Every structure is written in structure tokens, then in C-alpha cells.
Amino acid sequence: KAGVTQTPRYLIKTRGQQVTLSCSPISGHRSVSWYQQTPGQGLQFLFEYFSETQRNKGNFPGRFSGRQFSNSRSEMNVSTLELGDSALYLCASSLRGTSGENTQYFGPGTRLTVL
Amino acid sequence: AQRVTQPEKLLSVFKGAPVELKCNYSYSGSPELFWYVQYSRQRLQLLLRHISRESIKGFTADLNKGETSFHLKKPFAQEEDSAMYYCALGTYNTDKLIFGTGTRLQVFP
Predict the structure, then answer these.
(1) What residues in A contact B102, CB-CB < 8 Å?
(2) Any idea what DSSP says for residue A22?
(3) Which residues pair with A17 in a beta bridge?
(4) Does residue A69 contact residue A49 with C-beta atoms inside 8 Å?
(5) pLDDT tens digit string along A52-107?
(6) Mind listing the pLDDT tens digit for each residue in A15-65?
């Protein structure tokens, strides 16, 4: 099976712009989670989606939003970008919800740089 | 509050030496604990989960609820074990993971 894929892999934006990142989970996985990874804060949970519903949200401002489509693909959006949003954004998928199996498989990440 | 603490940022050992990467957690409910590893230029991947009670690549980890710890151990470190190791806390019936800050393990020849 193909692993979790994320597009684009690298992105450069300027302050005030918005950005959309995409994640395709492993085939059959219905749960998708997003994390932000920075040198200062480490890995922080952003949101979790299952069957197109947000089940959990981390402690991030409303500029960070996401959604999940019927095919389980997910997108996250960051509006009004700030310099501090520069980070590696990781997506993970799992089978949870179908068999209870909750091992999460991570994608390679999207490296966002805000100038 | 849910929290994971990895006190060591860097752990350096020589090949063949025992390794113990420490992880302590804070959670009022029934925890699910994981160890994830990130090798250089590779994606984050699961190494161990406490409910499996298995040994992967010679690593083991035992959940100690009394000490709220989930330390990762290996009796004889190998150079290929050099990587970043993250301890993570999962909560019941969600995929939300709370990660520790990670420990970089360096194994010298």
C-alpha cells in the first residue's frame, strides 16, 4: 500500500497570505490528524478528522482550519500567515473507527516557510 | 493536564552500551503510550506501543502506572539506532497524540 502522501512538500509564502496543504491517507484509513512541528515547540496536535467530522482540535488560533472529504483526503488551511507559522506540517492517518486499531502512519510533511 | 516529559535532549553512547530513554507522562485517565522514531531524512514512524508489549529492533518499553513512566530500553545499542525518539501519549478513542520534546540518540562506533 502507498503511504501517506502530502502535497506540496515545500512552500514559501509571505506574511498575510493564506495557504492550503493537502494530505492523502493510506487507502482504507478514515482517520486523519494534523501536527505542527517546530524546533521551539516540538510536535503539536492541530486537528483530527474522521468521516468528514472534526473530532478533536488542538490549541491553535482560528486561522488554522481543516476539512476532510468523503474519500478521506484532508486539507488544512492557514489564513493570514505569520512568521511563527513557519514549520513542518505533518499529516497522519489510522484505521481507528473501523477496527479500533489506532497506529498512526505519518506522511513526509509539508515544509512551510513564511517570509 | 496531559503532558509528556522527555528530560534528555541528547543521549550519547558507544556501540554495545545499554540505552535507556526516559519518558514520563501526566494523564488522569487510562493512557495509551507510544514510542515514535525518526531516522535521518525519514518520516516519523511507530517503534512501540505499550499495549503490544513487544520488542522491536531490540527495544522494549514497559508502562509503569505507579511512576507514570514509559522508558525505552535496549541492552546493546547499535550505530543504526542513532535517531530522534519521541514518546507520545494517546487518549481513549481518539487519534490525538501528545508528544514529548524528543531525545536524540547518538551511538558512536
Answers:
(1) 42-43
(2) E
(3) none
(4) no
(5) 999 989 999 999 999 999 999 999 999 999 999 999 999 999 987 545 567 889 99
(6) 999 999 999 999 999 899 999 999 989 999 999 999 999 998 999 999 999
A52, amino acid identity: E
Which DSSP string corresponds to B51-79? TT---BTTBEE--BTTTTB--EEESS--G
Reported in sequence order, the residue ranges of chain A that DSSP labels E, i.e. its strands, are: 5-7, 10-13, 19-24, 31-38, 42-50, 53-57, 64-68, 74-78, 87-94, 105-106, 110-114
The shortest C-alpha distance from A87 to chain B (Å) reads 15
Q: Pick the residue from chain B with its C-alpha nearest to A5.
A: B43
Nearest residue of chain B to residue A95 (CA atoms): B95
Categorise residue B16: left if φ over 0, alpha if ψ from -120 to 50, beta otherwise: left
